[in-house]
Amino acid sequence: MNMAFKPKPLSVRILERPEANELARIDAFVSASAQGTAFHRPAWVLAVSRACGHQWRYLLAEDGTGELQGILPLNLIHSALFGRALVSSGFAVGGGILSDNDQAIQLLADKAWEFAERYSFPSVELRGGPVPDGQWHHKQGIYAGFVNPLADDDESQLLAIPRKQRAEIRKGLANDLTVRVGVGEQDRADHYAVYAESVRNLGTPVFPKALFDEVLDEFGEDADILTVLHDGKPVASVLSLYHQQTVMPYWGGGTWDARRFRANDIMYYSLMNHARKRGCNKFDFGRSKYGTGAFSFKKNWGFEPQPLSYATRTADGEEARDVNPLSPKYKAKIALWQRLPLPVANLIGPMIAKGLG
């Protein structure tokens, strides 16, 4: 006689202290999951917390034997300007529930909302992962991700790039540019100076330098900085994350001179070759919003957009946070920010940006 299958009972508990054994268990769970990302890792969650002052929690779904069946990392974002939210994960383009167990997925989502209600967070934002059932709003058609395999060698990598973009790279290779990779103080200082100028030019406040430092320190060998220099002066720089043999150029930018030197093109092409030599086989260009210049730029490199899904839940009578710099309500503020002197933008920007989450 066949016995009816009974799923193992699951429970969810909250981890709120950095217990070494628990964090190692979470890290192993993320590493073992094909859907795991750098933004699920304790390294990311703790770095955000320390650098920006936001608390963190991990929701852990476990079976009756204590085995992990799913996790949900949360950063508790508080901002006078942008409001309060539970975010998975803070300052990230990924995160959300990590599980392939339907019961665990729903239990984690329910626990997150229960936590939000108890501590007066009007919304929960899941930046990736499965979408739970119930009163969760599924956001699609806004962002796309871009991932391509890396080629076998430098020349094959260049030939894999569409002709028009390949011509830009060849122009850049003819310029007097040098590439440096590292995580030392000079690498960090040069990267922050370039990135801060880049985001000011785009009209957005720069994150605190401590965020970049904490991420580099927490990730160790799984993060580095690649900088392109002209006559010894940094003109483009990117901080990249490495996870599951995939490189993600996460925080990158260039100065005004970067365009005429094709330094951004050299930066990404050099990163592809550097990552392959590190043992990576995929290049994750990150997310971009449909219809933007960044979206077109990545398509020009031969990357095909893959739609990304996000889920949010908001308390009755409340509006979801809007921290998208492309939102029409920020148009005037962006125009004003672009005119700020760089030292002023760098002084006040981090105080604003750490509340974005």
Automatic annotation (TrEMBL):
NCBIfam families: pepcterm_femAB (TIGR03019)
Originating species: Parasphingorhabdus flavimaris
Annotated BioF2-like acetyltransferase domain residues: 166-298
A Pfam cross-reference name: Acetyltransf_6
Descriptive protein name: FemAB family PEP-CTERM system-associated protein
InterPro entries: Acyl_CoA_acyltransferase, BioF2-like_GNAT_dom, PEP-CTERM_FemAB-rel, PG_Glycine_Bridge_Synth
Organism superkingdom: Bacteria
